[in-house]
Amino acid sequence: MSGGPERRDAPLADEPIAIVCGGGSLPLAVADAATKRGRRVVMLAVRGFADPQVERFRCHWIGLGQLGRVFKLLRAEACRDIVFIGGMLRPALGTLRLDWTAVRALPRVVRAFRGGDDHLLVSIARLFEDAGFRLVGAHEVAPDLLLPEGALGTHTPNERDRADIEHGLALLSALGPFDVGQAVVVAGRHVIAVEAAEGTDRMLERVAALRRDGRIRSEFGRGVLVKAPKPKQDQRFDLPSIGPPTIAGLAKAGLAGLAATAGATFVAEPAELLRAAEAAGVFVIGTPSHGAAA
């Protein structure tokens, strides 16, 4: 221990919580949810990624590699619990400007970068835990943002879509140990695309380009985007998420809809997502955690 707050097994709802913010609208949604539950929120906004709107909460801007500064801010704000949420590109280790605390932890930082994203995130979490802080999953702070089981809205998958969903879930389960990605596109039980470092939105752009180039033979309006967390994933980090841009992307890609794991997928701007899905004529469905299409 390094003099930080003592650890405990459960978060205390009357204590402030820090949210380390990457990009997108999810950090704001999680902060709103925590505030509604009576918790004071402190945003630690990562420069180059976080939305400036995070400044409507108490906010400190931080740079990657400023481990000592982050620890000092957390202690000054009396934050024991920390949530990591939002999109962020994995940096190259050599580009980080490390402060002295990070330099002293350099051997551990180097080891953290020798693996996939899950390994990196869990290794960073241990640095915080060893300093006396507690990493909390965003799903614990904002459970109302999780995708429910079943179809949202009026559009539902047909039997052909359900077969594609099952195929996609099986593929993601098989790929999980390789820390590849959390999304695939399947049409007619044919794998069209697998998410890698580019993320879901860019993967959908790739599918749209393949369709424009005549590389996808299935008709427009066929095929499914399937998202699921990796098997044995640490749910404090990087749970799948969907939002209005996801709907726009799958509509441009000519897909029938999307399926994602209920209770383990965040929905950013759920009302906007539902309106977009209804307007585009695509389905959104939450699948049970064991993988069957609802």
Please supply descriptive tags for the structure shown above:
alpha/beta, Rossmann fold, Cytidine Deaminase, domain 2, five-stranded parallel sheet, 18% strand
Described by strand count, sense and barrel closure, the largest sheet is: 6 strands, mixed
- Let me know the CATH homologous superfamily of the largest domain: LpxI C-terminal catalytic domain
Q: How many domains, as an integer? A: 2
Structural class: alpha/beta
Task: Label the overall shape.
Answer: globular
Order of helices and strands: EHEEHEHHHEHEHEEHEEHEEHE
Please give the CATH architecture of the largest domain.
3-Layer(aba) Sandwich
What can you see in these coordinates?
It is a single chain. The termini are far apart. Mean pLDDT is 86; it is low at 1-11. The protein is globular. β1 (17-21), α1 (26-36) and β2 form a beta-alpha-beta unit. The longest helix has 17 residues, at 159-175. The strands form three sheets. Strands 6-13-11-9-7-8 form a six-stranded mixed β-sheet, sandwiched between helices. A five-stranded parallel β-sheet has the order 3-2-1-4-5, with helices on both faces. The chain is of the alpha/beta class and 294 residues long. The chain is built from ten helices and 13 strands. Helix content is 35%, strand content 18%.
